[in-house]
Amino acid sequence: MTARPDRDRRHAAPAPAATPTATGPAPPRTVADPADTARPRPIGGRTADRPQRPHVLVARLDNDGDVLLAGPAIRAVAANAGRVTLLCGPRGQAAAELLPCVDELLLHRAEWIDPEPEPFDPAHSHRLVREVAARPVDEAVIFTSFHQSPLPLALLLRLAGVPRIAATSVDYPGSLLDVRHRISDDVHEVERALGLAAAAGHPLPPGDDGALRILRRSAGTALPPALPPQPYVVVHPGASVSARAWAPERHEQLVAALTERGRAVVVTGSPDERELTARVAAAAPVRAVDLGGATDLAGLAEVIAGAEAIVVGNTGPAHLAAAVGTPVVSLYAPTVPAVRWRPWMVPHVILHEPVPCAGCRARDCPVPGHPCIDRLPLATVLDAVDAMAAAERPHRPPLPAPEPPAPRPPSRPDRHGRPARTARRGNGSTRQRGATA
């Protein structure tokens, strides 16, 4: 893409081009050197750029589940954008590669977001500044959770020359933000992100219901051969944070009881959770299948999509289930309020015990016995599985088809010599890549 003359003054030498991935969702890739991030990830199969609309950088720098929850807001931005670049962290890359309406990924491990941050290295931040400056980005929208600050990233984007930046910020942003959005903390993460997108001039377009969506693999894609042919329930015992996970022995009891009731069970988990999934599946060796570490995130989505229901904690696969319309039994440790993080627009049951320490935001539970979820009666969970397996799955209408872009009026510099900010009117449409759910 050729840079416009009024932006050439801020462009650094572009970084070497990355090799495009194959069309369709790519398998998760890890960043070998945490310092060597800010790498471009072109995504195959996108529609052509619409140069009369702005190039927007959207950012969500935390985990897979958080990136999935930003998906509806990213679609809203894409409805008015000619090109969308998603800046994400390595912990959210696999989910980012499944989002529709994203043209390019940039990776950056943010020291102010990552739960296990690397020591601060100025060169690491300088690389991101150079990568962003090498692109004719017209504006940026920074999506964050209630406990995160957008201002460190806003500063880096200012250094890269991004002329318009929007974010939700409790802290005074000074001149780092052009749109400072304020919203109650007691709203769902999806609503929080959609509110920011609308405040930045990108409302959700007509025909988009605001549900979570992902790019789905083709119908002919082979699923793991171990999947049972009959209806099954997915049990996902792991979580990215230990305080949100039901005890392994409780999951063993659940799997044994489900199979005694005649249900087939599929136990899922990441490669790091193979020992856990093997232990849980062994509780019913005949009717429980262990798929720990056997799928990438896209494959896990297909396994969950084929299930009657999923039993899972407050972690990424709960939001993946919402994206494919599978009802959720949420063993929800209330470290953060469920109003912010419950499964979105999908049948679900939230299960936890009332405890005075709710809202603690602990990563490791400091209370002996983990009383908020480990004391849940097994019968309560089994009844919830029965209810969710019988629940009607949501209908997901197709996303709106692309429309021709409206001409953009020529901009005049503002009093500081910067390009004027053009108001965006009307509603665009969402660009699509591949089949979605």
List the helices and strands and how they pair.
Blueprint: E1 40-42, E2 55-60, H1 64-69, H2 71-80, E3 83-88, H3 93-96, E4 104-107, H4 122-133, E5 139-142, H5 151-159, E6 165-168, E7 179-181, H6 189-199, E8 232-236, H7 248-260, E9 264-267, H8 274-281, E10 288-290, H9 297-305, E11 309-313, H10 316-324, E12 328-331, H11 338-341, E13 348-351, H12 371-374, H13 378-389
Helix pairs in contact: 2-6, 7-8, 9-10
What does this structure look like?
With about 425 residues, this protein is α/β, with parallel strands linked by helices. Among the domains are: about 150 residues, Glycogen Phosphorylase B (Rossmann fold, 3-Layer(aba) Sandwich); about 160 residues, Rossmann fold (3-Layer(aba) Sandwich), CATH 3.40.50. About 25% of the residues lie in helices and about 15% in strands. The protein has 13 helices and 13 strands. The protein has a 7-stranded mixed sheet, with helices on both faces. Helix 7 runs parallel beside helix 8. The chain starts with about 40 loop residues before the first strand and ends in a 48-residue tail after the last helix. The N terminus and C terminus are likely disordered.
CATH architecture of the domain at 232-390: 3-Layer(aba) Sandwich
Tertiary shape: globular
The stretches of 5 or more residues where confidence is low (pLDDT under 50) are: 1-39, 41-48, 404-435
Order of strands across the main sheet: 1-4-3-2-5-6-7
Determine the CATH topology of the domain at 232-390.
Rossmann fold
Query: In sequence order, what are the helices and strands, one letter per element?
Result: EEHHEHEHEHEEHEHEHEHEHEHEHH
Helix content: 25-40%
Count of individual beta strands: 13
| First-last Cα distance | 31 Å
